[in-house]
Design goal:
The chain has nine helices and eleven strands. By secondary structure, it is α/β, with parallel strands linked by helices. It has one domain: Acetylglutamate kinase-like (Carbamate kinase), CATH 3.40.1160.10. The protein has a nine-stranded mixed β-sheet, with helices on both faces. Strands 7-8 form a two-stranded antiparallel ribbon.
Length: 238
């Protein structure tokens, strides 16, 4: 096993499967089983989930009626809904799971405490971090990188619906070439959109490798944590 402690970032959109918004039970079950495989092999796993699948449900709200700050707080609460749902699926496959939140809601989750999160991980429990960083103007990608740094994760795993980073959009360009490894500097220059620039910058400054991979292909999470070259590795040095 190459990565003993990892943070898995899942987008909210990943949880909705083929639905327009909301949660897809088959997808949640699949992800829970993938996490169980790596926990059973001794890996320590923390998770950050986005909220786009819930927030999309408000897409018909009149544009500009809700300001950026209000919208960001709505997004944070959406991640709490996703965290509670995923916790249920993880526990249904036998994984002890704790939720830690950046916004206090004691009846639902623990407040985020770094040392307590690390303690849970060392005991073989999965920790789901929700509510982003508790502040507007920061994405869940940035929250994932910061939480990964705080818990001293070996790697951040960005689970997506594509199998890595390409030179151009593979859905539009049949000649697009997949990149197995790329430096943070090159990601900046290419304007890679799979994660925001603040997240990449934090990863670069703190020497946190980030792997972009296809979470929907069964067995990929275990392969990545085992050290197999799946997806694209973004690191300080190419």
């Amino acid at each position: 096993m190459k990565y003993k402690r990892s943070l898995l970032k899942l987008s909210g959109e990943a949880l909705m499967g083929n639905n327009e918004f909301g949660l897809h039970s088959t997808r949640l079950q699949q992800y829970a089983e993938e996490v169980k495989k790596v926990v059973d092999m001794g890996a320590q796993v923390a998770i950050v989930i986005g909220g786009g699948n819930i927030f999309r449900g408000f897409s018909r709200i009149k544009e500009n009626t809700i300001d950026r700050i209000g919208g960001d707080y709505m997004g944070m609460l959406a991640t709490v809904i996703n965290g509670i749902a995923f916790q249920s699926y993880l526990e249904s496959v036998g994984i002890c799971t704790y939720i830690q939140t950046a916004i206090r809601m004691d009846q639902i989750a623990e407040p985020f405490v770094k040392d307590r999160a690390i303690h849970h991980l060392e005991k073989g429990r999965v920790v789901i971090f929700v509510a982003g960083l508790g502040n507007p103007y920061f994405t869940t990608d940035t929250a994932a990188v910061l939480r990964a740094i705080e818990i001293k994760a070996d790697v951040l795993l960005k689970g997506t619906r594509v199998d890595g980073i390409y030179t151009t959009d593979p859905e539009k360009d049949k000649y697009a070439k997949k990149l197995k490894k790329i430096s943070f500097d090159m990601a900046y220059q290419m304007g890679i959109k799979v994660m925001d620039q603040t997240a990449f910058s934090l990863g670069n400054e703190n020497n946190l490798p980030i792997i972009i991979f296809d979470i929907n292909r069964k067995g990929n999470l275990k392969k990545v944590i085992s050290g197999k070259e799946i997806g694209t590795l973004v690191s300080k040095n190419k």
